[in-house]
Amino acid sequence: MSTLSGEIIELVHSKQEAAFEVMFSVYYPRLVYFAKEYVPYEDAKSLVQDAFITFWEKNPDVSTESQLQSYLYTIVKNNCLMRLRHEKIEKGYVNEAELRIQNQVYSSALQQLDTSEIAFQEIETIIEKTLSDLPPRCREVFVLSRLEGKKNHEVAQELNISVKAVEAQITKALKVFRIELRDFLPILAYLLSTKL
């Protein structure tokens, strides 16, 4: 389920701005969707932008998409943890027990989240296997919707089926993916999100 070609990753690594823009357009929405599960939406956007700046400045040696994903998600995860810690300090001793408990839960969840390259390789293997096990029409609808980013009405038009049929096939596929990928759901929230 690779999104970026090896050539694009190579061009990103050699600091080609056009390739970086392609990478940004693919991963920015996914990373924001991931981060906003832990921090407010505006903070999520800012933290993800910071992650891309870090990536550009450090120019890490990534040669595969799983390495790239691991690197980006790890930076965003760490940025979220720092933001949550900063918020805790910022709030000081103000009596906002609920917010402090929520931050502790989010921090704990983020710290336990596996963003290693191996995790992304495992995710890719599970996705490919799960996709191949889906019924043909269900797989076709899911690929067009989630992997190619088409709206439900566009998928319906392309396959000459109703929007309701598209929604039913997506729901069916998502149930299977949620079971198969239950250990990786925070990272895959973008893929499994509802897009109408």
Automatic annotation (TrEMBL):
InterPro entries xrefs: RNA_pol_sigma-70-like (IPR039425), RNA_pol_sigma-70_dom (IPR014284), RNA_pol_sigma70_bacteroid (IPR014327), RNA_pol_sigma70_r2 (IPR007627), RNA_pol_sigma70_r4_t2 (IPR013249), RNA_pol_sigma_r2 (IPR013325), RNA_pol_sigma_r3/r4-like (IPR013324), WH-like_DNA-bd_sf (IPR036388)
Any single GO BP term: DNA-templated transcription initiation
Limits of the RNA polymerase sigma factor 70 region 4 type domain: 126-175
Keywords: Sigma factor, Transcription, Transcription regulation
Listed Pfam families: Sigma70_r2 (PF04542), Sigma70_r4_2 (PF08281)
CDD domains, sorted: Sigma70_r4 (cd06171)
GO molecular function: DNA binding; sigma factor activity
Entry-linked NCBIfam families: Sig70_bacteroi1, sigma70-ECF
Protein name, per record: RNA polymerase sigma-70 factor, ECF subfamily
Species the sequence originates in: Mariniphaga anaerophila
